Structure formats: structure tokens, C-alpha cells
Queue: 2 jobs
Job 1
Amino acid sequence: MRIRVIFSLKNKGAVLPFHHQKLIGSLIKDVLGNEYPEDEVLYSYSGLKGQTKVGREGLHYFSKRVTIVFTALSEDFLQLLIKKFFSQPYWTLGNLILLPERVEKEGVPSFSEAVKFLCISPLVILDTPSNTRNKEFIYPTLDEFSDYLYESTMHRMERSGKFTAEEISSFYRFQIVPDKGYLERIARQEKKFARIYTLIIDGSIKEVRGYTFPFELYADPRVQEFIFTCGFGELTHKGFGMLDVPESLSTEREVIYEDKNIDS
């Protein structure tokens, strides 16, 4: 299930860091408390979407409304998240004051054995306990890149309890094909598609490399739907690895909750 939580922004011009996933992660902790340990749920979320202007301090938000997209395997988890978001009149995200207004459920696209994806949050392929390789750069066209993501995806699918051992074994076809034109264009413009991101886990600072680029994935349609629903790669519960499908049914939305007390 995939939802968009839409907030009214009460202090236009307020600023967030360019990468603010950890702030959203802290907000989710505040919203849920201890009812759902974050690392026990297969889910992910986007950054804060809205009309922005780039400034020295980060992103200044000027739109009347802003949005966070959440996606999870468990509908119960998302229903609880909705309930908690609307349990109080406003929340703070960094310096932003957000009033929960409504929730829209996105449509689900049809999946085939070849699907084009966009990264709408950075994709992390390595999260080692020793933290020794997490910043290593692996070029996306290398088989090693696909191999790490395959192992991560099969582990998470097994952990979900939604697939049998026989099904997991049958998902052996798995290959990522990056958009080479995009990578070449980024190189010519001397821009980056891979950066180091810092987050805090259990009180310790962790640095990981995240990748943001379009790609096509060849895999079983059930695998495609799983990563679209649960996020792709490592640290999805920290807001990494959220994907979208270009021109998908995600543009078709149904309002499933609305606060009638919000002044529109």
C-alpha cells in the first residue's frame, strides 16, 4: 500500500536540509512512539515534497501544502500511522510547522519482468555491521551492484513471511540496467549521482553511500511489486531506496482520510 500524507504548511519559507530523511525518521518515531519498532516493519518514505527554493541553508518551502509519501507491506502499519498523524493538530519537522490535512491512496501499476524505476530517495546497497564498506563506490553497471541488491531483496522477501522457500528460490533472474544516457549526462555536467549520507542508529553515527539514478530492473513481477511497495536495498526504514515508476498509476489517487476542520 502506498499513501500520500498531505500537510498544510503554516510557516512558508521555513527551511530543511537537502537530505532530511533523518528528520522525517525522527518525526515517525514521535508519531508512533513504541507501537511499531521501525526495524521490524518493511516500509519506506520520501522526502518532503512541495514548492521549494534552494538556499545556502537548504530547501526553503513556499507552497501552501507539502507531502510525504509512505509505502509499506502492512496496511495495518499505514492505518496506524494515519491515525497517529491526525491525533494532534500539528507536528514540527525541523523548523516547519505541519498540520495534517488529508491522506490519498495511490494506484498500483501493473508489473512485468522489465520495469523502469526512478529513485525518489537515495538507494543504499551496502550496510555492513562493521561499517567498513558502507562508503565504497560501486559503479551501477557492474554485476556486483546487482548482486548486493539481489541478496538484500531476497533476505527482505524471506523476512516478510509472504513467500515460500520455493518462491524465493525461483526469483533467480535479477539484473539492474542503469540508464546509461543519464549517467553519461551527469558525468559531462560534472554532477554526482552517488553521495555519502550520515545517519544515527542506536546512538552511533553511520555513513553510507547512496545512489540516485533511473534504471530498468529485470526480475519476476512479484519481486518488482515487492520493492515498489517496501523500498529497495538497505535502510529503507530510514527513508532510503524509495522508488517510483514513470507515468504509473500512482498519479491516480483516492482520498481515504480528510480532516474537515482544516481551513483550505
Job 2
Amino acid sequence: MKKIILVAVVLLAGSVDVQAQLVRFGFKGGLNYANQNGSNITVNSDNYNTDAITSYHAGLVAELKLTDGFSIQPELLYSTQGATYKNAVEEFENELGYLSIPVLAKFNLNKTVSLDLGPQASFLLSERNQFDVKNAETFEFGVAGGLSLNLTKRFFIQGRYVLGLTEASREAEVKNSVLQISAGFKF
């Protein structure tokens, strides 16, 4: 009976070690360079041009290794996006805070670099405007693509572009776009 228990413990410990290598968790954070683009950017019947804003993102990362060259990386991020709106008379900033959930397919080009592609769903958590219109859509869908560079087995940096496919506003035909530069750590 003692031998059976010992064998069971050894097999269980071995399977836990294998599972730990297949799934890794971590966190990341970094800078956003965000803008809103569209064909009809009007607020209160005035036409505006947009300029990008610099903001941030931070959150949790999981990597599920399926093969040596392929893995899936779901993330849970808080990301601020938006733009600065300008016309001949005034200028104001529209900043939107999202809970973003990208699910990326990671194609390992070698042991250090991977190509990351996939969809992203975002849910609006906050809207900070310097004007009175509360007009942001509460859900946004987009696609993300970029590169990851593993500096060590635990530390990584990423560059990513996220393009919104759905409109970010009820009042104007605008879509979010954001360039993200991140650094992170996986356990």
C-alpha cells in the first residue's frame, strides 16, 4: 500500500511540473499611443481634427503552450485610449478607459521572437471628457497584431497595434486605434 501511495505521489508531482511548463501566468504594463479616426468627426455640429494622446495599459497575462512553435496568450488589461479633438476655436481631450481582453495566437519565429495576432474585445469602464457629451459605446471589438521579444525566460517586451473594428462613439463615426509598447514578467 505504501508503494502505491509513493508511486501516485511521484506521478502527481511529475504531472504538476509538466502542467506548470504548459501554462505560465504573468503581468505587463506599458505605454499607449492612441488616436480616434473616422470620416465624420463632429461634436455639437462642429467639425474636428484629432491628434493622438499618450496613455497607459496594465494587466494580467497567461500563456498556454500548445506546441513548441505555437501558443495562445489571453490577457486582461486596463487600457486608456482616446484622442485630442481640435478645431479653429477650441481643443479638448477625450479619454476612454477600457477593460480589454485580447486573445492572441503566438507564432514563435525562434526562441526569442514571436508574431502575435488575434481578436480583442473591450468594455468601457470610464469616460473622461473635457466637454459635456457622454457618447462612447460601451463595447468595442478590434484586431491586434505585433511582436514579442523574450529577453530572458521570465522578462519580455512587446510591440502591438490594435485597430478598432466597431465605432467608439454614438455621435460620430470614429474608431479607436492604439500602438502599445509593453514590458512584462511571466512566472
